[in-house]
């Protein structure tokens, strides 16, 4: 019922928008002859009224477009103000699932909004305290990702996505931003993600929601008139709710025929639920000291280059992770084998609470030549200190601890052709004292046609995530001690933007790798791998353009000497082919194409629902075949639309596929989506 009401209001809103006459489409009122060709009377008052009418009509004839809206993020405000125009094209518009990004795919439980793990090796470049729950990270909204706008006219964006036929996955979001004053912007956003099970609805109720995620944010961006002071502030709210069916019992659903509809398959868990609540209040302030230089002195709205800058950041964050299950689990299910808290009851109510308070101070100075170029004979140095306070609670275990981190980075532009950057993070005091991350990057630009060479290296010493060492919940309990995980990395990249070409080679050396294995009872249990792990990763990206035709390619090859520990495919490829057409005198710009994904066999991990962890259990490997998605996308004035048919080749080579043991991936299904922007 809620979904029908939402659709009704959205369609009504779109219909209302279509019915409006854009300011630029109003006929200008001029002193035309409306008396069948007769000359107008020579009346001075009428002439004055006609002139006034023309002037008024000119005031109303401003047509607001995307050119009036620009945006930025915090990372582009640290040295100066860098603004970007809105991307109103349809590029990648049809790829809406965050767990199916072409260059960053995942192994997952099959449903948008449920747990996932990276399919390609992606180490986390963080140090310090980590609670260890990351299976919903891509669905979170975090303060650093907030987009700030410079809106000369009010800006609103509406987005809606829905399947055709069975309503398995739906998304809706709305963004609004406007300038209160030329130097002060405010905004808000609302995101909603809902999904129903493709396979095995809890209690066999096909219409029950498996995923019900909500994200919201409020933000403001203020700059003083003299451009010395900048304030960024936001409040972010995340409430992620989902059911976990524990996988279906029917492990031969793709090989043995059945009369049962997929959504009515029997499942191992009927009442298991996850709930993440992640809320933050965030304030970041910058103040320029000393001289500052306008990039364009003739433009009062242009950005400035400071010579010294101080900044202060305040973050207050609360994280709450809940797992509940009100039904007794079948003995033969292979899940939730132990009961450590509620021994005489079928009730499970686990919770992990984390409160995080962060204060950070930074001082930056810039040495520049007479040129205002960003990368010519320029030295940027930033030093800072960060204090983190944590309050952790899980069942009857409570702990308070803190970390003090020294941070610094230096960026030197030898010329507009070469640059060198160093970054240092070192925890000097606290629970995770001894953690560090040292990184160096150099870029050499060889020319527009030849491209650029990027060299990168880092060394990381990282404390184990808290979940590896301590867990007290109804189905899992351990108290362990592990060594720090060490990662050494070397990277080389060759990029030619003009020809849409990128080649990348990476080498990783990992010591004391932390992961989950199958324990004595077959369930997930933390482990540390004592030997060094070597991994090579090669990536190639190239786009070809032939008139109306475009052929995009992305290929990754990753090789490790311990396949049973790092369970990842050796080869992954993504290809996209589409053709462009303009209809109705180039008003309707459209692309028609298809995507093909493929990865080689690997030992699929198992999944532990109560703690959201993927672990190495059986050596099950699934046959993999290319996955074909058909799609079309179009742009009409301020609206972008797409229609797609996922897994269109189901039944050609195989009836289905897996990425995680026992969790079948979605069947073929048509979907559509629309995005509408308003600039006034």
Outline the structure in words.
- The model is unreliable at 1-46 (pLDDT under 50).
- This protein is globular.
- It contains 3 helices and 36 strands.
- A hairpin with a 3-residue loop joins strand 18 and strand 19 (451-462).
- It is mainly beta.
- CATH superfamily of the largest domain, please? TonB-dependent receptor, beta-barrel domain
Uncertain spans: 1-46
CATH architectural designation of the largest domain: Beta Barrel
Q: How much of the residues is beta strand, in percent? A: over 45%
Please, how many domains?
2
Count of beta strands: 36
What is the averaged pLDDT score?
Answer: 87
CATH topology of the largest domain: Maltoporin, Chain A
The amount of helix comes to under 10%
CATH class categorisation of the largest domain: Mainly Beta
**Main pleated sheet:** 22 strands, antiparallel, barrel
Integer-rounded radius of gyration: 28 Å
Instruction: Classify the secondary structure makeup into a structural class.
Output: mainly beta
Shape: globular
Query: What's the N-to-C terminus distance?
Result: 32 Å
Total helical elements? 3
